[in-house]
Prior knowledge:
The protein is built from 13 helices and 14 strands. It is an alpha/beta fold.
Amino acid sequence: MRVVVYGAGAIGGVMGAELFASGHDVVLIARGEHGRVIAEEGLQYVTAEKTVTLTVPVVPHPSEIAFTDDDVVVLGMKSQHTPDALEELWATAGCRVPVFCAQNGVENERLALRRFDHVYGMCAQGWATHLAPGVVVGNSAPARGLYQLGRYPDGSDDRAERLAAALNVSGFVATVHEDVMAYKHAKLLGNLRNISQALFVPDDVDAVAALAFAEGTAALRAAGIPHVERQAFRAMLDPEVIHRVTIEGFPAVVTSTWQSLARGATSTETDYLNGEVALLGRLYGVPTPANVLLQQMAREAVQRGLRPATLTRRDFFDRLAAC
């Protein structure tokens, strides 16, 4: 099995690095300066135990890969970039290549199923950082990440088992589930916090995030969407299995949305996280004003080039009261 990691940022970069270091056949698809640096200088992979440079193969576009029946593609890009990425992959590899969606949110699988016969959900838990071209930091130990895998919309098969086995011998903990989307919806609720951490000063994050979480829980309940309960989901992060590590010389571990703002990205994945809750709220008659406002504030932050963690809860609650 060759693993094509399409989107080699924080999570995808760590996955590709560990699989490659364990002797698996890996190709990264990484664009722009990040891809150029990896191609010319190698991927610098940093953990608490080591810093290594890996000569993992990398291409800027799926058209540069000769796909075979033994390939699987793991999507690691942000959800807002998924439609274009899937179009490019479909044009090159056809509809039969298996696609594993290792991203936040729950829309990527639906998008992939419009193009591909074999689609899988991957719920990724753990911590990683990508702020500089050619560099990814693994902030999880001793496991490099936790993965729940399964076919979309449900079920499992040998292909999922094989990828899980490859991950398990490469420093991760991976399990296959018949109901993988129950895990991904549980993670969606946790990811509603991402934009709050990205926008607000640390002392004010909890107050905003709690509102977003409460609305998200109500929206899932109204829609009848099953999800792993919060306590059970968080219990999987057993500190003896996986915990967060801050590495000297690198920023404290932050969410992927925080990292997007720090890199000066022109978009965030908030529309597919808090926006998912807004969508469900509108479909099922559940008020979600906090999540709708966070969507708006995320867009404004990108347009203004706002640095992470610069707003206060008053910036949020004053506007929420006026909604």
